[in-house]
Every structure is written in C-alpha cells, then in structure tokens.
C-alpha cells in the first residue's frame, strides 16, 4: 500500500518533469505514506535523492522496499530453520518465499521505472504487494520467539 500510493503520487501528479527533490519535496511526498518516517528515512539515506526527479525518488523508494524484503526473507528463513513447531516452520517458510517473490517483483519495477514504463512498474509493485499479502505479521507475532525488530520491519509491507 505504501509503495503503490507513493508511486502514484510521484508518477501521476502534475509536477514539472525537471523538478528535483529537496527536503521539502521529500516531506511532501512521504507525508502520504502509511509510515512517513520510514519513507523519509529511506530517501534521506540515499545521496541520490537530493538530485533525483520524481522517477528517481520512486526508484529509491522501490530499492528501499526491495532491500527490506530481502532482509525479511532472510529473517524468515532463519526463523524457519530454528523453529521446532512444524506448523510455525511452514509459516516462516511461506513468509520467506513471499518476501523473496516480492523482492523479484520490486527488482522488475526498478527496471521498468528506468525504462519509463510506469504502468508496468506499478503492476510489478502491485504484484509485490500481493506476494507478501500472506498476513505474515499476525502469524509471526503469535510466535513468542520472533525478534521485535523483525515484526516492526514487516509493518512497512502490511
């Protein structure tokens, strides 16, 4: 949801194409995100954001989401390998696969943004959202041994 809204705002709103990002634009664009502070942190942590146009901003956001999906896939895989309960192990593996699939779709979205195929990029982002729409957060919260930072980082996606 976060990404789809941001991509929509960045790619479909009537800003001049040469508009470059600055802190004010970053604040405006991230204001509409589900978790604005995460969006702002993502953009401010990338040096390219200060000179990025709106496609560049969208690309940076998608890359942040892809990196987070990669981290979550690894966390879920690690939790699966240590789970003693067979059902929880299967759930962790499902979540890991979902985040891995999301990561692939987000990579596709980045490529499509660079090729100015914005509708295709949006479809890839929506597919990524569907890949991890497994409600992993609620599943994982029920497992008592899940690190809190893993659960928090999942909120970006759900």
Please give a structural write-up:
- The chain has 158 residues and is mainly alpha-helical.
- It is 72% helix and 0% strand.
- Mean pLDDT is 79; it is low at 1-5 and 11-19.
Which helices and strands appear, and what pairs or packs with what?
Elements: H1 2-12, H2 23-31, H3 36-44, H4 54-82, H5 86-114, H6 118-131, H7 136-141, H8 148-154
Helix pairs in contact: 1-4, 1-6, 2-3, 4-5, 5-6
Task: Give a quick precis of the structure.
This protein has helices spanning 2-12, 23-31, 36-44, 54-82, 86-114, 118-131, 136-141, 148-154. Helices cover 72% and strands 0% of the residues.
Q: Quick one: overall form?
A: globular
State the CATH superfamily name.
Answer: Invertase/pectin methylesterase inhibitor family protein
* Overall CATH architecture: Up-down Bundle
How many H/I helical runs? 8
Number of strands: 0
At the first level of CATH, the class is Mainly Alpha
Main sheet characteristics? none
GO molecular function: pectinesterase inhibitor activity
Signal peptide: 1-21
Keywords: Disulfide bond, Signal
Pfam family, one: PMEI
């Amino acid at each position: 949801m976060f990404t789809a809204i941001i991509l929509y705002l960045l790619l479909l709103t009537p800003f001049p194409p040469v508009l470059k990002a600055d802190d004010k634009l970053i604040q405006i664009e991230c204001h509409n995100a589900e978790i604005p502070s995460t969006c702002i942190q993502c953009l401010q942590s990338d040096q390219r954001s200060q000179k990025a146009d709106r496609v560049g901003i969208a690309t940076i956001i998608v890359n942040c989401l892809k990196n987070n999906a990669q981290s979550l896939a690894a966390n879920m895989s690690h939790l699966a390998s240590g789970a003693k309960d067979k059902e929880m192990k299967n759930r962790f593996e499902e979540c890991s696969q979902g985040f891995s699939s999301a990561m692939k779709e987000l990579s596709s979205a980045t490529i499509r943004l660079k090729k100015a195929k914005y509708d295709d990029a949006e479809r890839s982002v929506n597919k990524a959202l569907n890949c991890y729409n497994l409600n992993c957060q609620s599943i994982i919260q029920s497992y008592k041994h899940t690190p809190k930072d893993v659960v928090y980082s999942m909120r970006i996606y759900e």
